[in-house]
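User: What would this chain look like folded?
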Amino acid sequence: MQKNRIFYPRAPRQLFGQFIRFGTIGAMGLVWDILIVTLLRPHLGLTAAALLSYFAVASLNWLLNQLWTFKNVAHRDHPVLQWLRFLTANSFGFLLNRGTVYTLCFTIPFCSKHVAIPLAAGALMGLTANFSLSRKLVFREKVPETPMELAQMAVSLNIDPTDHDLKS
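Assistant: Here's the prediction, encoded as structure tokens.
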């Protein structure tokens, strides 16, 4: 059985570079998130403002990650399907992110008044999960042909430190 290359890059240097680019886009998204929540919260309340902001910022982050972080593997399938897969794959990060925001806002009065602090904490909570799931399920070299192959890709831990296929 031939071992298929699915996830790129596998070399630590390229993986670190991807993580830094992903984190940079996430930091820019955090700025947008803070601005949107701050502007919408007086009119819609925290919950609606945070949810609307998340989907707007997640969509922008998907586009920027496609164009920069994962530019060599991002254009394998239809953009709408990839965007939906990005939102779906990052739903765990969403739960970590917004769970942190709501927990801090509803339990610590200072955080409720200074919403940037819980938004930053939430972004950090979701970063690693979102990066890992985005690499494995959204921006990948090989598009799965069956649901079983997608499930295998999601749990694959094949790492080859000598694999230098992706240019930084």
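The longest helix spans residues 12-44. If you want, I can go into more detail on any region.
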